[in-house]
Amino acid sequence: MKNNTTTAATSSMRQLADLLPFFNGLKSRYALGALLLLITNGSALLVPWLLKRAVEQLSHPRSDGFSAGDYALMIALLAVAYCLVRIGSRTVMLHGARQVEFRVREALFARLLQLDQSFFSRERTGDLLSRFSNDLTNIRMLAGFGAMSILNTVIIYGAALWLMLLISPLLTLAALASLPVMVLTVQAVSGKIFTLSREAQEELATVSNHAEEAFSAAVLIKSYCREGEFSKRFNDAAERCLNKNLKLARLRGFIIPVMALATGAGTLAVLFVGGRQVIQGVMTLGDFVAFSGYLALLVWPTMVLGWILTLFQRGGASMARINELLTARSAVHEMDEPFRTAPLNQGVMFKNLTFSYAERPVLQEISFEVRAGERIGITGPVGSGKSTLLQLIPRLLPVKDGMLFLDGRDINQLHLGDLRDMIGYLPQEATLFSRSIAENIRYGGEGDCRKSAELAGLAPDLDSFSQGLETLIGERGVTLSGGQRQRVALARAMVRNPALLLLDDPLAAVDAGNEDEILNALSAAWQGKTVLMVSHRLSAFRDCHRVLVLDEGRIVEQGTAAELLQQGGRYAELARRQGTGGVKT
Which domains can be identified in the chain, with CATH numbers? Predict the structure, then answer.
């Protein structure tokens, strides 16, 4: 148990050390906060001394000093100064905590933008959102109230104990007799609080993930009458989260009474020993009042130690979760001095390309060349690696050196921004933002939105929209049909007139009536462009120079549509089933 506690405490401190860089530039703010806390506590520490003087003046009036009324006025003025300076100290330090939270949030978001697609495929959206909200709240509390409470406790303990020792070492020893109980209690529960805090945050992330899934799939859940199942899953996760937090609350609830008990025991010891000394004349009543006042100042910092411990352990657990993102590394990385690309002149070459997901091979020994201006169609059964092949070209997934070349240069040597600037990519699932149609198209880059919308076959639909291109399309394009969403995404891929077009099943959500219209528009738009298009509809390849057929991650057939039909292989079988030869007529 002791080893576990020590390990957890050490882990917590190690995680909190990673938070220190986010305080850079804020040292002056925290120094000012510490100075204001020093003044605040100085004002509080003066009050018992003034009370001592007032009591002594009442007991033994002197004509050459201040009256008891004067001391009362001083205490009142100190109380006002205490309140004003305390407000200033809290404002300064809590604003600093907000700055720390802001910096961590920025660093998290910047890191997420750098991570590759494989990272997001294995992480849960709800868990990521939980780290941005719940874990960051714990970090802010730690950097604000936690840091302020620690500074306040150190100042008040150091000054009060020194003054108490000056008055009576014996009474000070009596007051601190219960300190070992507090130390042992903190040591016993510290590691458990860290562990429970981490588990509670993990369970809260699960709850957030269930909520996010339910919101995203609301229509699907209702369509299949699965409300009860999703409700049960959510309730189970929420109950687990509640149980973890209740355990944490019970542990915290145990610490605070122990601290209060220890403080009360010290106070009783002071009353007993100090009272006897006053009666015996060993100590003056004024000294006893002052000592009791300083002891009273220690009551709250002592009781709040349990809360501070919880803050630090929760903050350490949250920082551990945040560090998992901050230290995550993308498998797609850029060279220190990448080659700046020029317009595509030679084309793209695949050379014995192999790719695997978690040791599961997806593409194996893929070799072919795409000349500049050539249009290549890619088809094959589900899971044959078609979409993965396209994602490797803009390096959305990592590719090994010596397997993929652009204009004769290894793609890993190219500047990533330049590479992606020359590519127009249409993913298999069209992702739209809750903005206008024009804003969604312009997300692909600068260009003529209306022209690209016309090329994508969206022009007839624009007339039916209330505000044309400026029509808001709702969350994820919910107000659009599947075909309309696909065409908006297609317009986005073409808006900046890219040299290389990667189209992943562009006609998947388009009905047969619009297929010819879109293909006719595309045939004019992609003249002179290099195009790789994945599709299950062989009719989409009518303007392609060559077609590749993939199966189980390998190229099993390639050639023109006419050549593949004559071979009578898999392409011919697909054409027979679809009733098309995939040849332009």
Answer: 17-326 (1.20.1560.10), 347-578 (3.40.50.300)
